[in-house]
Every structure is written in C-alpha cells, then in structure tokens.
Design a protein that fits this description.
The complex is a heterodimer of chains A (363) and B (290). With 363 residues, chain A is mostly helical. Helix content of chain A is 74%, strand content 1%. Chain A is built from 16 helices and 2 strands. A two-stranded antiparallel ribbon of chain A has the order 1-2. Chain B has 290 residues and is an alpha/beta fold. Chain B has 10 helices and 12 strands. In chain B, the strands form 3 sheets. A 6-stranded mixed beta sheet of chain B has the order 6-7-8-3-9-10, with helices on both faces.
C-alpha cells in the first residue's frame, strides 16, 4: 500500500521535470515553404494535362502575358493562358477561401467539427445559385455577381436556420450541430437537384454534379474576379481579429473579460463566412471536406493561435485544392472527375478519425 | 483601484437575478462573495467583467462607471476568470496566457518584449513556467485554473474577478490556488462556494441572498449561525480553527435548519449507541453508521 502511494506520488511529480513541449514548426518558415510548394503546384497544374507543356514554356507564356507582349505564334499560349492558368488560380483561390471559411466557422460556433459543407451552408448557397439561374437572375449579372449574391442569401439563410435549430442554452452540442446541418443540407440539396432537373438544361447531369459535388471546370478569367477580391479581403479582415478569435474560442465570458465584444464579433463572422461561402459556391459548387480538414491539419502543425493558423490555413487550403484538381484532371484518360469526388474520398476517413477522437472520448 | 457596486439590477434569461445589490471591493483586499446557488453571485460577477449589462445601477471602478469605458479599456483594468472551459482547439498553455495581452494590442500587432516578459512572469507566478508547450485541454483541473489565473495576471489588471475558481478541484489544488491569490495581494473579487475557504481567505465577505447583499463585513462578523440558518438553510456553529485561528464553520450535515429539532438531549458517549443519535432525524432507521 505504502509502496503504491509512494510510486503514485513519484509519477505526479514527474511533470515539472518534463521538458517543455513546444510546437516544433515555426509558422514563418512553414508559410514560406507552403507558398513555394503552392507555386510549384500551380506550375505543375498548368503544365500537366492532355497536352503536356514544359514548365519553362508555361512561365514564358505567363511572363509575356503579364508584360503585355504579344504571344509567340505556334505556342500553347491559348491553352496556358485561357484554360489552365485561370483554372489553377481558381483552385488556389477556392482552396484558400475554404481554409479560411472553415477556420472562421469553427471559431464562430466554437466547434472543431464545423464546416460550411457539413452545416448545410454550402447546400443552401447551391440552392440559392441554382434558383437564381432557373429564375434567370444570375446569367446576365456582371461577373457572376448576381449568382454570388443569390448564393450568399442562400448561405446566410441556411446558416441562420442551422444555428437556430442547433443552438441550445447559448451553446452548441457538437453532435447536435452536425446532425442539424447534415439534415438541413440534405433537404436543400434534394431541392437543388429537383430544380436543376426541372430547368431542362441540356447539360443537366453536369449541372447537378457541379452544384452538389463541386467542380472547377467552369474556370475562366471573369469567374476569378469575385473570389480574387473576396478571399484576400476575408484573410485581412480575419487576421486583424486573430486575437479576438482566440478569445472567442475560449468562450463568450472569457472574450468579454479580455475586452472582446463577442456578440458583435460573432455577427460579423456570421455575415463574412456566409458571404465567402456564397462566392465560393457560385464559382465552384459545394466542395466537401476541405474547409473541415484544412484547419485541423494546420492546427496539428502550428497550433490553435489564429494569428498563425489563418495564413497557414489559407496557404495549405490553396495547395491542397490545386493538387487535388491536378489529380482530378489527370487520373482518368477519358473524362475528368469533379473535385468534390476526390475531396470526399480523402475527407470522409479524416472525419471519421475526428469523430472518434472528439466524440469517442465521451466529451 | 476599487470596485463599487451601486444599486445593481441585472436580468438574466428573462428574470431579475440581481436586485439592488450594493457592495465595495476595497483596494488590495480579497473580497468574497458567498451565497446559495441561484443567489446571483455569478450574474453579479459577469456584470463586473462586462459579459452582462446591468438593467439599472452601476459598477464603478474607482468612481468611473465601467460602462463608459471601451471594452478593451475596461479589460485593462478588470481581468476575469469565468467558470467556462473553452473548446478543444489545440491551444498551448503559453498561447492561453498570452491571450491576456489582447486588450493592449491593436490589429496585426505582434508580440513585443514587454508582452513576452509579462507572459513569462505570469507563468512563473503560478508555477507553470515549465509547461508552456503543453496543450491546455490536457491539463488537470488545478493546472488549468492556474493557467487561467496566469492569463489574468498577464492582463495587468487593477482588479481580479474570479467566479468559483476552486470548483471541481481537489482539496490540495483548492488550497494551492487560494494561497496563490492570497500571496498576490491584489484587489480581488471572488465568489466561493466553500464558506470555510471564504472565511480564511477573504478580508471581507458579502452574502448574497435572492439577488441582494444581506450581510457584509469581516468573515467572523458575517458568518453567524443565525445568518447561516436563514440564508443557507443549514444548522452550524462557528468555532476557532485549531490550526489557523480562522473562523471554522462546523455544519450539521444531518438535517437542514428548518427540520424539526429531533436531537437527543443527552450528549454522545453517555452509553447511547451511535446509531441512536441519528434515529428519527430523517436519515432513517436503516442507515448504517459503522
């Protein structure tokens, strides 16, 4: 008996002697490495495809275009500049946007399982966009702003609905939130499929896949405008509030004690994440799992401090989606896969792992 | 700096929880807030750290209405240790403590030497300087409270507000935390569940009952058997603690104050079996008292 007591005491006092465990990866070098990797991936994305174009030629074309020089005849200028560069950039922007939306949404509902796709918000945005097309609102809009606007309204309305259903006594039970989101999301995506099929579009099947699974195949320079504005603005806005986000994930009372107006911050986050989700869905449909996985993966490496987490999530999200899109375009000879297929194949096991870790421990 | 609360009314979830409370937390003293569950302790404290808005009345920081300050300004004066526990977001001990600098930092501002120094000192003050890289959610209850206290220290506040900081801690960790508070000699407003802890740690006590302060003063003056019976509904006697000399409240754990007096007249040890002492006092005859 005495022996066990002594040994118990011994294990208790081991703690202070343990060397302090610190994050081994500093955020600065990691961000630089990610940025470099992103550049390489973007080059590969433009270079690889049905016609292979050497990396040197890719950069040559881009350089001439950027300098305003006329393209050299007989080159792959058109393929590079009109098809592949916009698509690679769209993948990067959407990926970065999803990384940011996931990070912000998880802080907003104080739940690491939050993600616009899981909470049904992407489905709401899809429904908004499809409704706009069916009603003839979106197609004529300048730079797809009408489409983005409709997707934003759909996202905001869905977010408000899921929020209301899942909220209980000022908090969210993780399972309750996810279940409410999945149920509402499924309902909305059923409605979206119905609308798309009713519209009698000649590319029906493709449209359904686009809005429900997510795809980057519609990429073009004009389509890049909205995300090219929305993603950097969101990053800056969130980065300016990184400390407040840290306080918010500890709880509303903690936030209040640290001088953060949690209600106002939450209202702003609510609008911002809905807006960005709307923009992203309008250009790429509802891409699953990226917004959920990216912040988690990044937290494991740089920790939970939003000052580091936000830029790293944006960069990693961009890199991930560019790479996934390369896989989608090159995996099969005859046709390309929607990005959502591949992100789901990677994301579903990742979610199961998270559920096991977060809910399985009984908390 | 001191905290003055004047005729404070606070509504929470549609009902008035604090109804006309007056109290003062004097500079450099530990001011305790005690009262039964639902008496309004947490609500009152939440109003002091500005989580809740008063329906009427004021919270004064050395004469300045706290509501007239910006949230960040107020947080530079008043630091809180609320009861909530954050979600699991992989924050390290150091990151949690560094949050204390939030009210001093502008957007995009990084950590400077002052911040680093204050965070390091706060960690050392609570004895957690060797645990900076550990995940906050991995800590034991006692360690967690110490880290949150360090965060409050890093905030360089004039006033510390703590809502039941010893809740869910084992007795050793309760003692450690309270000793830490005592050693700091800061202006502190703390709600405590444990009346004996309050009696030995606090310089002054305020007793809350149904949202009002019904008694104030040094613990020995406030914690009288009559008040304990009326406010807490328990029977107790107050003696001197044999070790510390602090007031020690000895509760009668067998029956509440309003139960009919069924005590045996004869003292224990007069040949009466132990089981007879509890006979008929509500414990039931079947209860074994070995």
């Amino acid at each position: 008996m005495i022996d066990t007591l002594v040994r118990r005491k011994g294990t208790e006092e081991r703690h202070p002697e343990e060397p302090a465990r610190t994050r081994s990866v500093p955020a600065g070098p990691l961000a630089s490495a990610l940025a470099l990797a992103l550049l390489v991936a973007l080059t590969a994305a433009v270079s690889w495809g049905s016609t292979s174009i050497p990396a040197g030629e890719v950069w040559n074309v881009v350089w001439r275009r950027l300098c305003g020089e006329p393209p050299r005849p007989g080159t792959n200028d058109l393929i590079v500049w009109q098809l592949r560069v916009p698509r690679a950039l769209l993948a990067a922007l959407v990926g970065a946007g999803l990384g940011l939306v996931g990070t912000a949404m998880q802080a907003l509902v104080r739940n690491p399982l939050a993600d616009p796709y899981f909470l049904g918000i992407s489905n709401g945005a899809s429904l908004g966009a499809v409704a706009a097309i069916v009603l003839g609102l979106g197609t004529g809009g300048a730079l797809g702003l009408g489409l983005s606007g409709a997707a934003f309204v759909g996202a905001l309305a869905t977010f408000a609905l899921v929020w209301t259903v899942a909220r209980r006594r000022g908090g969210f039970a993780p399972l309750r939130l996810v279940l409410a989101g999945v149920a509402i999301g499924q309902f909305l995506s059923g409605f979206t499929s119905y609308l798309v099929l009713q519209a009698g579009d000649e590319q029906q099947t493709h449209s359904v896949l686009f809005w429900l699974m997510g795809s980057l195949s519609g990429a073009s320079w004009p389509l890049l405008a909205a995300p090219a504005v929305a993603v950097p603005v969101t990053l800056l806005w969130l980065q300016a509030r990184a400390r407040a986000l840290n306080a918010l994930i500890m709880g509303d009372e903690t936030a209040a004690g640290l001088g953060v107006d949690a209600i106002r911050l939450r209202r702003e986050l609510f609008t911002l994440t809905s807006l960005l989700t709307g923009v992203l869905v309008a250009v790429s449909g509802a891409i699953a799992f990226v917004a959920l996985m990216v912040p988690h993966a990044c937290r494991l490496v740089v920790g939970g401090d939003h000052r580091r987490l936000l830029p790293v999530s944006a960069l990693f999200g961009a890199l991930l989606l560019v790479v996934v899109d390369i896989v989608c375009r090159t995996a099969m000879e005859t046709q390309e896969l929607p990005v959502g297929v591949v992100t789901s194949l990677i994301g579903a096991p990742a979610l199961l792992y998270l559920l096991d870790r977060r809910l399985g421990s009984g908390s | 700096m001191r905290i003055g609360i004047e005729d404070l009314h606070v509504a929470y979830a549609g009902r008035t929880v604090v109804a006309g409370a007056h109290l003062v937390a004097a500079e450099g003293e530990i001011t305790g807030l005690v009262g039964p569950n639902g008496s309004g302790k947490s609500t009152l404290l939440r109003t002091v750290y500005r989580h809740l808005k008063p329906a009427s009345g004021r919270v004064l920081l050395s004469g300045t209405d706290l509501r007239r300050l910006s949230p960040a300004e107020a947080a530079r004066h008043v630091a809180a240790l609320p009861q909530e526990r954050g979600g699991d977001f992989e924050l390290t001990v150091r990151e949690v403590v560094a949050m204390g600098r939030t009210p001093y930092k502008r957007a995009f501002a990084g950590e400077d030497a002052t911040d680093r120094d204050l965070v390091a000192r706060a960690l050392a003050d609570v004895g957690m300087e060797r645990h900076t890289g550990r995940r906050f959610t991995e800590l034991s209850g006692g360690e967690r409270q110490r880290v949150l206290l360090a965060r409050a220290f890093a905030q360089q506040p004039d006033v510390l507000v703590l809502d039941e900081p010893t809740n869910h801690l084992d007795i050793r960790h309760q003692v450690e935390l309270l000793a830490l508070l005592r050693a700091q000699r800061r202006t502190t407003l703390v709600s405590l569940h444990d009346l004996n802890a309050a009696a030995s740690v606090c310089d002054r006590l305020h007793v809350l009952h149904d949202g009002q302060v019904v008694a104030s003063g040094p613990p020995r003056d406030v914690l009288q058997p009559a008040l304990l019976a009326e406010v807490f509904g328990v029977r107790a006697t107050v003696v001197d603690h044999p070790l510390t000399g602090d007031p020690l409240i000895a509760f009668d754990h067998r029956a509440p104050a309003d139960a009919p007096d069924v005590r045996p007249v004869e003292p224990a040890g007069a040949g009466i079996p132990m089981s007879a002492l509890s006979g008929g006092s509500g414990a039931g005859p079947g209860r074994s008292r070995r």
